[in-house]
Write a structure and sequence with these properties.
Helix content: 40-55%
Radius of gyration: 29 Å
Number of domains: 1
Strand content: 15-25%
Number of strands: 4
Order of helices and strands: HHHEEEE
Strand order of the largest sheet: 1-2-3-4
Distance between the termini: 104 Å
Length: 185
């Protein structure tokens, strides 16, 4: 009888689920935390991507419009790569992105001179400015001439506890931005 009573108690203990919630929580919690961090990392990467794309457009706008007053008789000085880099830096700093990390990037396919005259390429602070570039197909007539501004920004996913085969900079994205704007005739 004693043996049967012990067996019934063991069967009852095996069927009980008193600590099941704690065990499930211990399994699910790391997955939920990892999922939340992934949302934060990819959200920040997307934020940086949209900001550098906007900064490239603003740089192209400065390259086309210029930095001086625009009027028929003023003849403002032609903007330089430094003027473009200054505007790109202002946009990046407004979004708390370090403009010193900006790196050069050549868009693919590379801008072509085509029928726009002599294309020039200048760079300042990692921002590359192509002026007198043909924006449409090289065989197109009439050619659409303009400027292209391009650069890239590194974004690193840093792991809190580095896993040995991956290291701390295992996930490194090069976010690329290139904007083109047609010059007005």
């Amino acid at each position: 009888m004693q043996q049967r009573w012990n067996m019934a108690r063991w069967l009852k203990a095996l069927r009980a689920n008193d600590g099941a919630e704690i065990a499930e929580f211990a399994v699910v919690l790391p997955l939920v935390v990892l999922f939340l961090f992934a949302i934060l990392w990819f959200g920040r990467a997307y934020n940086i991507y949209t900001t550098i794309t906007y900064a490239a457009r603003e740089g192209a706008k400065v390259a086309v419009v210029g930095t001086g007053p625009s009027c028929a008789t003023c003849n403002p000085a032609a903007p330089t790569a430094l003027d473009v880099y200054t505007r790109v830096s202002q946009v990046l700093q407004a979004s708390h992105i370090d403009p010193l990390k900006v790196q050069s990037y050549a868009p693919n396919p590379a801008p072509a001179a085509g029928g726009c005259g002599g294309m020039t390429t200048t760079s300042s602070g990692g921002v590359t400015l192509y002026t007198n570039a043909q924006l449409n197909a090289v065989t197109s007539i009439p050619p659409a001439c303009g400027v292209v501004v391009s650069f890239q920004y590194p974004f690193n996913f840093l792991l809190v506890n580095a896993v040995p085969p991956f290291g701390t900079n295992a996930f490194n994205l090069r976010l690329k931005a290139a904007a083109q704007m047609q010059e007005e005739n």
